[in-house]
Amino acid sequence: MATDEKTDKGADRDRLGPPQPHWTLRERVEELRLVKDEARQGPSPAATEAQHAKGKLTARERIELLVDAGSFHEVEPLRRHRATGFGLEGRRPYTDGVVTGWGTVEGRTVFVYAHDFRIFGGALGEAHAAKIHKIMDMAIAAGAPLVSLNDGAGARIQEGVVALAGYGGIFQRNTRASGVIPQISVMLGPCAGGAAYSPALTDFVFMVRDTSQMFITGPDVVQAVTGARVSQNGLGGADVHAATSGVAHFAYDDEETCLAEVRYLLSLLPSNNRELPPTARGSDPADRPSDTLVDLVPDDPGRVYDMRAVIEEIVDDGEYLEVHERWANNIVCALARLDGEVVGIVANQPMSRAGVLDIEASEKAARFVQMCDAFNIPIVTLVDVPGFLPGVDQEHGGIIRHGAKLLYAYCNATVPRVSVVLRKAYGGAYIVMDSQSIGADLTYAWPTNEIAVMGAEGAANVIFRREIAASDDPEAVRQQRIKEYKSELMHPYYGAERGLVDDVIDPADTRRVLTRSLVMLRGKHADLPARKHGNPPQ
Question: Which of 29, 63, 130, 408 shows a CA-CA span of 20 to 30 A to 492?
Fold first, then answer.
């Protein structure tokens, strides 16, 4: 067949017919080039234009933004489905709607699969699923992160149960890879029904506003069953999942920013659970004093301040990546560096609900602690907590069960753990926030610390209730007893005198103390009891 005929008709094997026996190797190479060009270009320019018109990039454009330039190596680009019926036998595009392969991010290997919405709406069929299964198996075997770029319409209805089985294979591999390699899901389009469970099984979920949605049942079903009218974004958009449900860890306005942040996150994670996170030493001295901390945190335990400002002052160059920034704002979880080494930071946030622990904050911090422990990231805990949030809703919602998740996560963590009590640490919340009694390797406190069963006011009301009630001047007696309780049990050296705090430190020395402590703990090794797995509270 002449070259111009190939060019006119494209490289689809169904149209070209089998290669002729007399073709030379050069002609076969030319045919291969045309076939691969067709696979790379996708179904048609019109389909690409339609994707761009929605404010969305194509699968390959997304991969180019994610990995280092020229580093992507595609796997099975010529795979096609073998299904018949419902018109599928006449539609057999290359890739079958998913691009799979590996590349590098800042020189380190990363495996990727990206749904191509232009082909069958990115819907998953047997061949599509087989490609994803293969790249997931390769990522696990190679010990490298896996990033999924999700933009698909769910299971391919025309292929029936084999499509559902394909999702089952993905879920099984997500679970097998959990805690072994970092798994990152990037939502760049719709994700409905059972397909939403794969992102939920991964370590991090990124979403893009207006173009990505996740839900189990769509707006039409919700309206039919409940009568409630809701848009796709109102039901499962990026802002909903970032601020209300907690499903999304990060939400951004555009795909370019989103994928740049995925690259940044990958720079803070190890390739697998057998490695340490990459070191990136900068110019910020490890022993830099933090004199401004004295002014950032008020002496009065009732006054609010922004814990993020404290974190900025302590970490390298003030840079950190906050996880779940808009969900459960009463606790801050962030990845940062101290003297070039990655650390996970868990900190109460007095600006939101006075920094109390509630159901959502406990879940958020527990999952973060588990992630850090799985991937050898030391944990720094900054404590300023008045207790658990009281209330009927919290109790009926299972605050005991959910609070225990955070307790379990800390108790189970074997990575280096250092905590600093900035101001108050009351009751069970003090214990849960990585106190020495549950295994913190080192515990420090500022001179403003108040570690106690409860605040002095509440304690005095309980202990001296009868005396206060019988007094001629109840308020004067109450204030006197509050003062006594503080002086006896809540002075800053009470915990240190009993070995529950390793040292009381000058706030300005916090960065230096943390850095030196983590250097000492870098070689920490701790074994858990032999068991199949624990049974954490759910």
Answer: 408
